């Protein structure tokens, strides 16, 4: 088989890349090793930048229809006696424009929407149940059942997630950082009117609740590493109580989980490959970076990688400038953005990692100040949204630390919009030229 672009891995990243290329007329073959839906939980929170990308790909409405819109994340800090000590909000409404909300959607359903959109194009070929085993000189070596075959392509893009064969073929190393905690994660029914996200913490406990459509809610509960096995030996009512203690809103709903089997262990890791591109190969998504799940960014980073690499590759074919050195534009745009998100997610993780009262106090003060200071609030939401990047400076840190007073005046809409990435920021080769 022969094609312009071969993609290994049909997760959210690989599928978004395939759709983008297919829409622009590039010949694409995508190989996905799984023949059935993945049984494990994965990312479900879509940030505003991902929604903007899906809008450009023509699937925004379908995604809105099948997801739960989240405008506000309610951050509750509880006392040792589980009374609300402090409440602050992360409010997507501070972002001007159309993309001012996050969306929760079932991961496999999102994959199906993207795949169905890509399958409308004759230049897209999806090889289900087909694993990429490695690379030959100019080919990807594939295996379906016992049958082995090769695909010849001009470019090979690895979107195979954490254990990427393309990354290995590129000889790109990743050094993994682990954390001093794990998570339990599970989805269960919720009340109809519980539609905004909630993050509930005490000095030594953490529960995240993210409402999905169909009156369901996805939850993550922090546990010390190694506790999962012991917890599973307890009656399921112990798990229910962990949740209802912190979140009365789930009482009567979490009890519908009758078996530990549905509750998965999630082990957070962080890494960032030192390079995304080598010759005519490139990696996207979890193949090149993993972020702590606290900030709900991993899937969004894969979508944003796919957008930039897809636009670039399609332009290269359209302009008949297919020299592999052009792929460096992808790394140029994405690397520093991804690095910033990784650092933010890492900081957010650290804020909940240490079970000490002074840490919880500092966290509570920081969130309070962030909400009181409209510029800090906007910066936080902008960075989380992916729509732009505005790093915090010394003054911001002093305000957060209570050393300087909060600013009372908000920025006007047009000043905020100046902080959004422009098409020139996203696709700089369009003005600077390909070789
Ligand atoms: C429990 C959990 C919760 C998460 N929550 C969030 C969240 O709320 N928000 C968020 O943004 N992110 C979240 N993430 C992270 C997010 O799921 C990942 O960052 C995202 O799925 C990465 O997408 P990807 O396409 O790069 O890789 P993957 O989703 O890992 O997809 C890789 C695909 O490649 C296939 N594959 C692997 N090897 C081969 C091969 N050799 N040949 C062919 N196919 C292959 C796999 O079967 C898979 O389908 C979470 C992750 C986990 C585990």
UniProtKB/TrEMBL annotation:
Q: Which GO terms describe its molecular function?
A: FAD binding; oxidoreductase activity
The keyword Oxidoreductase is annotated on this UniProt entry: yes
Listed Pfam families = FAD_binding_3
Show where the FAD-binding domain sits: 2-344
Superkingdom to which the source organism belongs: Bacteria
Q: Which UniProt keywords apply?
A: Oxidoreductase
Q: What is this protein called?
A: FAD-dependent oxidoreductase
Organism the protein comes from = Planococcus donghaensis
